[in-house]
Amino acid sequence: MADTLISHPAAALALRWHEHLSRERRRSEHTVRAYVATAHRLIAFLGEHLGEAVDASTLVALKPSDLRAYLTRRRAAGLGNASAARELSAVRGFLAFAAAEQGREAAVPRVKGPKKPRSVPRPVSPDEAVALAEEAGEEASQPWIAARDEAVLLLLYGSGLRVAEALGLDGAALPLGDALRVTGKRAKTRIVPLLAPVREAIETYLALCPYAPSPDLPLFRGARGGPLRGEIVRRAVRKARRTLGLSERATPHALRHSFATHLLGRGADLRTLQELLGHASLSSTQIYTAVDAAHLMDVYRHAHPRA
Description:
Layout: H1 2-6, H2 10-24, H3 29-50, H4 56-60, H5 64-76, H6 81-101, H7 126-138, H8 143-159, H9 163-167, E1 179-183, E2 189-193, H10 196-208, H11 230-244, H12 252-265, H13 270-277, H14 282-285, H15 287-303
């Protein structure tokens, strides 16, 4: 592919997009690598599809049929629904960047993302949870807000917090370690794990946030420096899931459900899960055994030749 890319002027544009994502948008190394790889794949495909060298003007003039042809090629290569939705999101971002480079309004061809098949209600997958957090950041207007939204959502999934619990954290939680003390319902406190990727996301947000942390002020701030409201988080998730083509079940609270179900599926016992989630009674935690069973039945129905 590298030899093919050299002949396309748009390859230089992809390199500038790499710098834009890394330095101006402050996206994670993983996101930058994935998005720029998508840009290179698109350029190589278009060179073959259109039969000409691809430059910025070519990208700005693309038609919906061109993007559909690209996605068809990617799906034929084995790309699943969630991955195809993220691929389309990266393409849209790259085309918008190409238009901005030329001082033009982004007129990205309208192409519907892949639809997810209907199934019994179940938590979002680990890949979808991370994609939702990263895409919510992509939708933000400023780098520090992008880092904030990604950090909050990764915290919900990585530590199983309720939205109110995450937004209730204050500067007293600093410096961050391997665990967090969280205040839940009825002012009950508990200790939850803080995974390294989640801790790093929060620290990235804190480094970019224009408002200095304080023990008596919220850790996560709104655009004007006040407490971040739950509705802002939910709004960011709604936009991100539309971009990714995820169903309406992909909500901030669904990330907490996913945390619980994935732990249960990997052998966690109900008592431990009860403590991690802050449930007052074990009966509240037992709902996740039903959720996990529903997912297993869904897999069975799709996989068994006689189902």
